[in-house]
Amino acid sequence: MKLGKRIAYVGLMLLVLCMSIVSVSTNAVYAYEGMSAVTNIAVGHMHSIALKSDGTVWTWGRNSNGQLGDGTRWTRKTPVQVSDLSDIQAVTTGRHHSMALKSDGTVWAWGANVNGILGDGTATQRTTPVQSSGLSDIQAIAGQMSHSMALKNDGTVWAWGTNSSGQLGDGTTTGRRTAVQVSELSDIKAIDGGDYHSIALKSDGTVWTWGRNAYGELGDGTTVNKTVPVQVSGLSDIQAIAGGGYHSIALKSDGTVWAWGANNTGQLGIGTNEKVSGAVQVSELSDIQAIAAGHQHNIVLKSDGTLWTWGINHFGQLGNGTTLGSFTPVQVSGLNLFPTPH
Prior knowledge:
342 residues; 24 strands; mainly beta; Methylamine Dehydrogenase, Chain H; single chain; 1 helix; four-stranded antiparallel sheet
């Protein structure tokens, strides 16, 4: 398998493994009938979403806020097609809402709409997709617990929803029901965020953050909230970013992983549980190709196909056969994404 295809496949696997917080009694992997040719997936708090190669979107799980987008609020145990949605090229989720990016560069959203997180100018819950107002020429989207984000082809970032900690990055703490441009930010190539903070990766390899900073999740050496972007201290040559609940991680081009923010469950991977307000290198990790962050744990892929995790493990989310948390990376048991052919 070529590296590009490997990383695309890995993206699917890391999302499932990292964000899932349920334990199972078997090691079985279940395939849904009719769910072949899946190109993109995402998971919310209690629902899942998949994009098929034909541009249709399918969802399943809890639906109390309409986050499945099928026009109902019925929980679904198998995938249902999202209503009136086609020609989609990417999907993402927040805690209780879902988002899709169409090939024409428009953004569509459905589910809970607290503080206008759907971006349609209202706070009305939606059980079918509505278009997020004022957005076009979008290349990437990101959904968080409190807010939503979009990256335009011109390298600017736009955000909407709750803004109590400055997570929209417009210089205020005023919530927005439609998208506003993040201040003083350009030349961005990737976006992500945590519960109440946001992260952006510039094309020069620097990382910029804004929003809540009570645990140092902005990585600027302080614990003061920021309403406009600040640069993460001491980080350069970054190629990927990921936001956890109250922490952040980044992957350098040399294959090392760096982390900052909340560390109460060891989610920074540095051997202690003390919070850190500046980027520190995750212990005993090298040759990493891909990263993903859960609320209080992380998962990374090494070039040899092995997966490594650290942080909270109450529900077995570290995949090492125990429910004991780890302050340093441990290998996921019995799983290799690039097995050597026999």
